[in-house]
């Protein structure tokens, strides 16, 4: 430390008077130009430019070396400077900047990676699985490689794919509510299983409470998956499964069912067309047509799968397949107790007698005057065998009246004894005019001559008709049935039905009462050579 001694020496062109130097002692001519201390106190150095002892560690005018004056203007600093440890520094920094002795500047600890978060706290130059460092918000960080995220606490790049504790970003722990299992396959938390009563969302990012009113896999209850028969797509509405589209060949109903219209008994041939076969106790739908498979008691199943009453069915009267036909044309009737019965006849030509249409008298016979002068021409025709042409209208045949002498006999009687003409006129000989195509008792010809047949005389016949000159059996007496040819009545063998253990009602094809038919003869008889109505 300077002692304040004064002396004088000549230095250059001046005399050094030995001025006191607080940081040195003695007097010395420096470089032949400057007066200075001979020695400096410890920590001080002689400035040969000024001759003064200076502290190079703190003197901003001699900072680090003599005459090294620090700048007085610094970025982000107030005007002025300081020397610290022989280094020039700003005297003070403008907030929020801070003085960094290492960086010898006013720095931002938020962004300066050499002073990140605090002065003189440098960031690493780079990181594993990442790039160069930077300072953000006073924290060292970096841009990590794909699939990694920066952990600022531990200053490392962590994997963010496949790690449910760092999924997509560091410390992003997967916590999907109601999930029992979770994964992080792509950096997104996904649920792989949910608690009971919950379902994975479509993107598997959530577990959603199951709505049993709308969920097709839990429709009406948990784990009750929709399986509408025949549906190609379906839905759940108010807890009920419904088809929205059907497989080929099926039809979608308004209730959301897929229906086969060819076999559904409730939708046979069309939606809501329920089978209702009359008299059926069970039924089915085949190719869109309703069929009975069994009938209620008293009815019989036909080959066409209908239920019929053999006692009343016109198409199955008495037995299956037997259809009632009524003769002549225009006649009508009914099936009564299994027998075809005529109930009305075409008038005025026919009348209903004992359940049959009887041909009424033609009324069209050629009447001739009752004199011998007129008889003579007729006798010539009669002798020539032209009786029918002479006696009856066209389409009718002259038949000898049953029980009387034939016309030939009457004629022979007249020729042998004209007196017997009285007997002839007394109806002991004569003919009646019949349409043998329809006459019951002379069907196909005169029954009295054997040329035709008396339909009413067929053994065991119930009701009958003459149609196109042929006897047609409509029904037979009890215990008999029509033959295949329809011209005879055959005895029926009784049998038990397999279903009820009762007599088969089809075995008896007739009513209990045999209807007898009496043909009312045409009331025209031969009187001489004329034909008159029978009295």
TrEMBL record:
Origin, by domain of life? Eukaryota
Q: Where is this region: Disordered?
A: 495-516
Q: Which residues form the Protein CPL1-like domain?
A: 431-489
Q: Which InterPro entries match?
A: CPL1-like, PriA/CPL1_fungi
**What is the name listed in the Swiss-Prot or TrEMBL entry for this protein?**
Protein CPL1-like domain-containing protein
Please name the source species: Rhodotorula taiwanensis
Tell me the lineage of the source organism: Eukaryota, Fungi, Dikarya, Basidiomycota, Pucciniomycotina
């Amino acid at each position: 430390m300077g002692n304040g001694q004064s002396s004088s020496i000549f230095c250059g062109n001046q005399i050094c008077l030995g001025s006191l130097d607080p940081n040195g002692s003695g007097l010395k001519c420096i470089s032949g130009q400057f007066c200075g201390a001979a020695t400096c106190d410890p920590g001080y150095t002689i400035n040969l430019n000024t001759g003064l002892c200076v502290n190079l560690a703190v003197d901003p005018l001699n900072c680090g070396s003599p005459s090294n004056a620090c700048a007085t203007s610094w970025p982000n600093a107030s005007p002025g400077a300081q020397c610290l440890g022989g280094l020039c520094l700003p005297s003070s920094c403008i907030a929020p900047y801070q003085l960094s002795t290492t960086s010898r500047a006013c720095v931002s600890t938020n962004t300066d990676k050499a002073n990140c978060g605090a002065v003189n706290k440098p960031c690493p130059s780079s990181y594993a699985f990442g790039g160069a460092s930077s300072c953000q918000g006073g924290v060292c960080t970096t841009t990590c490689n794909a699939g990694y995220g920066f952990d600022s606490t531990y200053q490392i790049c962590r994997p963010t794919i496949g790690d449910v504790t760092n999924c997509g970003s560091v410390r992003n722990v997967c916590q999907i509510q109601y999930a029992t299992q979770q994964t992080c396959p792509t950096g997104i938390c996904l649920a792989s299983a949910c608690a009971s009563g919950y379902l994975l969302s479509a993107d598997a990012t959530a577990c959603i409470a199951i709505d049993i009113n709308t969920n097709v896999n839990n429709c009406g209850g948990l784990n009750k998956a929709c399986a509408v028969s025949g549906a190609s797509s379906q839905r759940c509405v108010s807890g009920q499964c419904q088809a929205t589209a059907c497989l080929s060949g099926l039809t979608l109903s308004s209730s959301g069912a897929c229906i086969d219209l060819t076999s559904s008994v409730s939708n046979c041939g069309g939606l809501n067309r329920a089978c209702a076969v009359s008299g059926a106790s069970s039924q089915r739908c085949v190719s869109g047509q309703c069929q009975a498979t069994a009938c209620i008691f008293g009815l019989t199943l036909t080959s066409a799968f209908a239920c019929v009453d053999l006692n009343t069915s016109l198409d199955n009267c008495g037995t299956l397949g037997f259809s009632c036909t009524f003769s002549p044309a225009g006649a009508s009737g009914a099936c009564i107790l299994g027998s075809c019965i005529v109930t009305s006849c075409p008038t005025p030509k026919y009348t209903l007698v004992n359940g049959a249409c009887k041909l009424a008298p033609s009324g069209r016979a050629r009447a001739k005057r009752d004199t011998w002068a007129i008889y003579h021409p007729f006798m010539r025709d009669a002798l020539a065998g032209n009786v029918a042409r002479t006696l009856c209208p066209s389409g009718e045949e002259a038949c000898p009246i049953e029980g009387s002498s034939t016309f030939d006999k009457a004629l022979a009687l007249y020729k042998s004894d004209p007196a017997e003409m009285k007997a002839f006129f007394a109806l002991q000989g004569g003919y009646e005019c019949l349409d043998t195509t329809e006459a019951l008792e002379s069907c196909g010809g005169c029954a009295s001559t054997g040329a035709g047949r008396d339909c009413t005389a067929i053994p065991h016949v119930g009701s009958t008709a003459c149609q196109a000159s042929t006897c047609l059996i409509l029904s037979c007496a009890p215990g008999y049935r029509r033959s295949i040819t329809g011209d005879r009545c055959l005895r029926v063998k009784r049998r038990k039905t397999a279903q009820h253990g009762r007599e088969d009602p089809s075995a008896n094809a007739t009513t209990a009462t045999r209807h007898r038919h009496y043909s009312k003869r045409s009331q025209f008889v031969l009187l001489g050579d004329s034909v008159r109505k029978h009295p």
